[in-house]
Amino acid sequence: MEFLDCWTPLTYERYCNAYHGSYMSFVTTPEGKQIRLKGKLKGIDNLYLAGQWTNSPGGLPVAVASGKFAVQRLLKSLRRDINI
What is the torsion angle, in degrees rounded to the nearest 10, for the CA atoms of residue 68, residue 69, residue 74 and residue 78? Predict the structure, then answer.
């Protein structure tokens, strides 16, 4: 077995400027509303949104996924193959 990588909350704070090392951007509560943006803004062509604030509960994994979805929207608008 070989050790490859390790991270701590301090890693998230150092590399992502996350508050107290948090990897999540929202706290979900039973009364809370799910946040989900479409990834496009009306009236602005060729702008695709991605990031940890576009979907709840947010966080770094959500930011990566929203980046993938933004690329898929872009490729679809260009009528290219979207199998990524």
Answer: 100
Q: Is residue 72 part of a domain?
A: yes
pLDDT digits (tens, 9 = 90+) for 35-51: 667 778 888 888 888 88
SS3 of residue 79 by DSSP: coil
Residue showing tokens 């990566």: 64
Here the tokens at position 5 are 């990588």
> How many other CB atoms sit within 10 Å of the CB of residue 73?
17
Contact between 12 and 23 (Cβ < 8 Å): yes
Would you say residue 24 lies in a domain? no
